[in-house]
Amino acid sequence: MRKEPAAAAAPLGAPGGPLQSREPPRVADGAVELLEEAADLLVLRRDFRAALRTCERAWQSLGHEAAPGGAAGSSLEVKCSLCVVGIQALAEMDQWQQVLSWVLQYYQVPEKLPPKVLELCILLYSKMQEPGAVLEVASAWLQDTDNQGLPEYRALAALHLQRVLLPLGCLSEAEELVVGSAAFSEEQRLGTLQAISTARQQQKHEQLGPEDQKLNQEGSFSHKLLSLLMLLRRLWDSAVSHFLALPFKKSLLAALILCLLVVKFDPASPSSLPFICKLAQTFHWIRAAVFSPLHQPRALD
Fold first, then answer.
1. Are 20 and 54 in contact (CB under 8 A)?
2. pLDDT in tens, 149-160
3. Sign of the CA dihedral with 154 first, then 159, 161, and 165 last
4. Inter-CA distances, 186 with 115, 128, 155, 165, 189, Å
5. Geometric angle at alpha carbon 180, from 176 and 182, rounded to 5°
6. Cβ(66)–Cβ(72) below 8 Å
7. Choice among 36-45, 101-110, 125-134, 290-299 with the minimum mean pLDDT
8. CA dihedral of 210, 211, 213, 218, whole degrees rounded to 10
9. pTM summary value
């Protein structure tokens, strides 16, 4: 019988036994290849449906859990890249409404979304005029204490404020985010609080009923009409005082010229003589009443 070598009986990892690789496990090469294939289908071939299916195959190869050891970081990067390609493919196919559900089926909870994926979701839904769809997801991500230590937190908080909270009129949530978060500088905080105050006043104005708006419009019209009447009265008083300060002959001449322009009568016509005499009597009566308070003018027919 042939004698077996002693190394064959030695346990794995023991001195003299076969050596194990000390290198950290790497991400499955198949997932990386599928990622490259999906990017090629998206950008070069413009086959968006095939690109989405390739991303899903890559996700299945990776599994829902991160790889152990040193490959965890690389696995997370690959998963994030797969989500980016998948989001773009869904948007190109005009199926952007399915983006959130498609992403969350792999990450399960909003707090675990990568910052880049959340940023794309906010930009996409705000561009499509549906920021309310991403409100709960973004709020949950920003409230997570682990995410608050990330370097991307400040940019995502500002993006959530400008693209989601303010357009939706969530002013209390916006104010709470600005005041309670250290992500904003003092200048940004003051500017944002001023914008929130302006939006709150506009919101109160829009919440007024039709009757209240009608009353406000009527009050504004009455105020404008009263101001106009007061202005006309001042102009009239000024014109009358200036007119009465003129000599009698100049006043009569001004009245005749005014009648020529307005009434357009012929002073040389015999039919205009009674009117001129009546006008002269009226001026005599006005001057007597103004400059002689004790004078009692006759009542004119």
1. no
2. 899 999 999 999
3. negative
4. 24, 32, 15, 20, 5
5. 135
6. yes
7. 290-299
8. 140
9. 0.58
